[in-house]
Amino acid sequence: AWDFTVIAAGGNLKKLSAANMADPALTMREQAYKLIGKTAPSFRVTNVILHIDEVSAANSFREVDGSFQVPTFLKTCPTTQTAEYQSTDTSLCRSMNVDKNGLPTLVASTRNATTGVWSNQLWANFRCVMPLEISGSGAAAPTVYGHGLLGSAGEVVGGSFAKGVQSNMMGCATDWSGMSSADALLVAGTLGDMSYFHTLSDHMLQGMLNFQFLARLINSTQGFATSGAFKSGSAVRFQVGKCQYMGYSQGGIMGGAVSAISNEWSRVVLGVPGENYGGLLLNRSVDWNEFSAFYNPAYPNATDQQLGLQLVQLLWDRGENDGYAQHITTSPYGGTKAKQVFIIENYGDHQVTNVSTEVFARTIGATRHSPTFDTNSFGSPRSNVPTEVQWGIPNHTYSPTTQVKALDELWDYGTPTPPTVNLAPWTNAYGNDPHGYGRRTPGLIDQIRSFQVTGLIADICLSGSTPTACVGVPGS
């Protein structure tokens, strides 16, 4: 037997190195926050929309749209985004600006002393949703929300956050740089020529910084709290300084990474998350069929396809959970606090394989709801159920007074067991995809809010007072 280190974790703020896993993201954090100190970034509100549901007042909410400034570490693209894939002369288009040691360094900018606006910095979009009025129980509990695969900030309106507003929460989202709908050309071009993959991973690092600055706008008294769009009279509509993180799907896969390096929140909700895009997630996801249409023609040999995904994972690691999981709940990086994590997993997920979710859960030291799974929950026993579902994850003891360190709660919606091999659950034999289920389940939303506000989670999977497997209604 022999041991070897493939890459050092990094995290020593006095000895940051481009050779270490987390250090590029950490040096970006340190440089960017030095610019704003204890203040908030500049922002502008462009739209306030009142969504009124005449049938059900509970479905009404307030939407605030706008943009905010973030220091950029990406070089300016000289022409169009697609030019990068047509000419080697622009091969560094929108890639990371680095110093002589290979670490990210800020693109030079100056600040207008009158307006507070910086030149040569990017304006990231934001969309926030909140209750129409301040609740009798107080201002809304705020969270930054990470959207799904190549999605957008617009997903915070409805979708995974549909019931959040009804539970007196405020959600704010921004497009995840490199992995949003606005990056479709970037992703397609990269899959057609993987030698440009560094551009995608560089954007993901910028996206991690964008989320932290969005959270600062929520936490700072000089941020959103100064805008009438976020007030009712003189009262601020959300709890200033209490921001947490919530992300589903891609927002769960990348949410652990940004949480590991951020000091803007302490509690993290990750819905149907995982880790290791290239080595584990893609081939086991039904989503890969759409994207492999760009990748496979460029690399028709099956061996080359697998080798390519494994190689670029070395870059992908710096923008998703795979590179940071060991430092989220324990052994935090320098100048960073450990986080509490609540994982929501759906059995038989067609888009994010349970194998990946559970590797992540074991890595962060999560416990599991017990009993984990009941093969008879939907009638006749299902076939190919593992001997121990959520293998290697110890049982959780729920407590009304002890905060959760890390919990992986598995929900069953009747979906058959997924393939055990490196294939996606394509055929009808694998039933309906539960990936999007549970996001409108009232009890689950209550768990999320309780965890984000107090760190406590109550067991809602009970028969009387007896714990049962968590069984949900398909489509909920």
CATH topology: Rossmann fold
Give the mean pLDDT. Answer: 92
The fourth-level CATH homologous superfamily is Alpha/Beta hydrolase fold, catalytic domain
- What's the helix count? 10
CATH class (first level) name: Alpha Beta
Q: How far is the first residue's CA from the last residue's CA?
A: 49 Å
Number of strands: 15
Contiguous runs where pLDDT drops below 50 for at least 5 residues: 78-92
| SSE succession | HEEEEEHHEEEHHEHHHEHEEHEEE
General form: globular
Whole-number total of structural domains: 1
Structural class: alpha/beta
Strand content is 15-25%
CATH architecture: 3-Layer(aba) Sandwich
Helix proportion: 10-25%
Q: Tell me the major beta sheet.
A: 11 strands, mixed
Rounded radius of gyration (Å): 22 Å
Name the descriptors.
eleven-stranded mixed beta sheet; two-stranded antiparallel ribbon; 16% strand; globular; Rossmann fold; 476 residues; single chain; 10 helices; alpha/beta
Give an overview in words.
The chain has 476 residues and is α/β, with parallel strands linked by helices. The protein has a single domain (48-71, 122-471), classed as Rossmann fold (3-Layer(aba) Sandwich), CATH 3.40.50.1820. Helices cover 23% and strands 16% of the residues. It has helices at residues 23-36, 184-192, 197-219, 250-253, 255-261, 277-281, 288-298, 302-316, 354-363, 442-454, and strands at 43-51, 61-70, 122-130, 141-146, 169-173, 231-232, 235-236, 244-248, 267-271, 340-346, 367-368, 406-412, 462-463, 466-467, 470-471. Strands 1, 2, 3, 4, 5, 8, 9, 10, 11, 12 and 15 form an eleven-stranded mixed β-sheet that branches. A two-stranded antiparallel sheet has the order 6-7. Helix 1 (23-36) packs across helix 3 and helix 2 crosses helix 7 (288-298). Mean pLDDT is 92; it is low at 78-92.
